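Researcher: Sequence of Ribosome-binding ATPase YchF follows. Predict its structure.
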Amino acid sequence: MKAGIVGLPNVGKSTLFNCLSNAKAQSANFPFCTIEPNVGVVNVPDPRLSKLEELVNPERVQPATVDIVDIAGLVKGASKGEGLGNQFLANIRETDAILHVLRCFDNDNIVHVDNSVNPVRDKETIDIELQLKDLETVEKKLEKVKKASRTGNKDAQKEETVLMQIKEGLEQGKSIRALEFSEDAYADYVKPLQFITDKPVMYVCNVDEAAAVNGNEYVEKVREAVKDEHAEVLVLAVGTEADINELDDYEERQMFLQDIGLDEPGSAKLIRAAYKLLKQQTYFTAGVKEVRAWTINIGSTAPQAAGVIHTDFEKGFIRAEVIGYEDFVKFGSEAKVKEAGKMGVEGKNYIVKDGDVMHFLFNV
Ligand SMILES: Nc1ncnc2c1ncn2[C@@H]1O[C@H](COP(=O)(O)OP(=O)(O)OP(=O)(O)O)[C@@H](O)[C@H]1O
Ligand SMILES: [Mg+2]
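Model: Prediction complete. Tokens:
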């Protein structure tokens, strides 16, 4: 699962990527600085992991990770080959969620490809290109489905209705995630086409230092413009955080963060939000060798969760011993939780909860 950073050229996408990941992407004050996507594996900051580390005192700790991709800037006409053309639209298609960066700061020294700061307009520019790309996809599919539908194929007729609904929505400037489908229609006809505007999105408002905590007028306009999308809007002083990240010393970084009014980097909040956007959740294993956060899809069963460690764990799954995170902390160790009778023994239908501390029994 990966989240892609998307936006107009020169709005701070690579700078954001560098805040999140240790992989250094080139960022500079000119449009189309990024051409090939930069890929980074980013640790998901999770205070629960430090707490478990404290209690178990393991040899090593492994946080959950999320893959972040920094993609080239999009411009008007991209879907027709303008700018870097279609290539990076393919890069976006390969992601599972979109972090849409919007420039929400004034600075005459930083070029804006459309010559003025207007994040709502910028958002629409990007949306239109993505919608046009999806329109192309749906029209291609419709051509085929219509043929089958004319021969009286009932399934094809149903599909045609759904695809027409998508086509009309896109033509009205709506993104597919804003359209409503029945659960079946979505699973059968919409999801398989992997539309770009169906991917979950989060808006990242790139502000200056003064607006790091409370945002500014640009941010308010963005919030207003996206209020029907049920999408999260995150405020981040990307440039400032990148500067702070350059400091080697942890104490010094904390000091600068406090100076701008933050108790943790906005990028930490962003990574956690991206993780949620990808519909991922965490369970833990807490052994003396390793305390580790594992990533699963929300709604995973115990065997599916076991399968993330090893496919044999899933195939040979017998049962799972489960301790709720809160109980683990309250009693302080696996043994004490057992003593208190708070350890659950769960079978293959158990739906794993976020934060469960798990131990699997299996045979191979
Ligand atoms: N909040 C900010 N305030 C001031 N300058 C910023 C801010 N965020 C980014 N910048 C500056 O904007 C310029 C462009 O940033 P960056 O290279 O990250 O853009 P990009 O979106 O990746 O562009 P491209 O699409 O061309 O790859 C850089 O000089 C960067 O330092
Ligand atoms: Mg870039």
